[in-house]
User: Which sequence fits this backbone?
């Protein structure tokens, strides 16, 4: 079923139709929509050269453009044109060996507004990830069904969420972990993962049963997935996979993915008929789809 997921075009090629008939999948890491280029921020955004090992022949370089200092890694290569890439070390410019430094600097100045806008997005993403980074310790927080719950350690307790309804948490609810205070981060992480997967199995099954009862659809079976790049999938035989990490999202997002996969039982493609089917199963699904399209998977807790 196809952020962060974009729909496939209706005029699919023959090979694409054949693939869709075998399995329809929803991308976990589909590219979000391109935002309009913003004017450069008032403060310099170019990163200071980090303490990283540059590739052989690469070096840091600086160019003044749009009233700001743009720092970048210059890497020579066999490519025929000058390329720009925003990565973990900021801006990387790749240029042919025969292109002079003056021409490279001019290319950076010409693309300055685009570069500064992308660097701005990059800095914002780094800040979001820093805020969302999960601390695997007593008092650490993690997202569960769209809320922030707090991990607490107590070896005398069973692992459970201390709230009236674990399927309807509120911010600040405590997830008690049956672990000693000196438990390692890895042990805490593994315990939380097992609990989350158990909750996902329970909740997804209940939501699936509700959809099937209301629509008269039937499936062969379903199971949890740990796929790195898919929220879910559905085969033509009626086998459905749902990524357990959906348990981090609010219920309407989970329902959207389930409706998306069930719609593939009738439409093994992403054409207009498919989206009409999704709308029948879940009216107003568009807002949930947009959330997944814009979602940054790197902001989820890391269990690797």
Assistant:
């Amino acid at each position: 079923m196809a952020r962060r997921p974009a729909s496939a075009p209706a005029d699919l090629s023959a090979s694409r139709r054949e693939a869709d008939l075998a399995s329809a999948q929803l991308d976990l890491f589909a590219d979000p929509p391109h935002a309009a280029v913003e004017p450069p921020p008032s403060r310099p955004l170019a990163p200071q050269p980090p303490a990283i090992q540059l590739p052989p022949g690469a070096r840091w370089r600086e160019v003044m453009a749009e009233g700001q200092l743009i720092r970048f890694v210059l890497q020579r290569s066999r490519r025929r044109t000058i390329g720009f890439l925003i990565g973990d070390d900021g801006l990387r410019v790749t240029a042919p060996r025969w292109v002079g430094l003056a021409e490279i600097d001019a290319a950076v100045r010409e693309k300055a507004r685009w570069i500064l806008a992308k660097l701005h997005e990059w800095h914002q993403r780094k800040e979001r990830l820093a805020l969302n980074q999960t601390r695997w310790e007593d008092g650490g927080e993690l997202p569960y069904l769209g809320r922030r719950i707090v991990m607490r350690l107590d070896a005398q307790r069973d692992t459970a969420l201390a709230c009236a309804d674990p399927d309807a948490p509120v911010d600040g609810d405590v997830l008690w972990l049956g672990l000693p205070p000196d438990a390692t981060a890895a042990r805490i992480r593994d315990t939380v993962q097992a609990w989350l997967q158990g909750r996902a199995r329970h909740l997804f099954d209940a939501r699936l049963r509700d959809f099937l009862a209301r629509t008269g659809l039937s499936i062969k079976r379903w199971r949890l997935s740990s796929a790195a790049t898919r929220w879910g999938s559905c085969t033509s035989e009626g086998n459905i996979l749902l990524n357990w990490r959906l348990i981090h999202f609010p219920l309407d997002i989970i329902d959207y993915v389930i409706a998306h996969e069930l719609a593939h039982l009738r439409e093994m493609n992403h054409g207009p008929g498919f989206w009409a089917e999704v709308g029948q199963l879940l009216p107003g699904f568009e807002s949930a789809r947009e959330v997944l399209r814009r979602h940054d998977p790197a902001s989820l807790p890391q269990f690797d």
User: Anything to note?
Assistant: The first strand starts at residue 23 and ends at 27. Residues 185-215 form the longest helix (31 residues). The radius of gyration is 23 Å. Residues 59-132 form one domain.
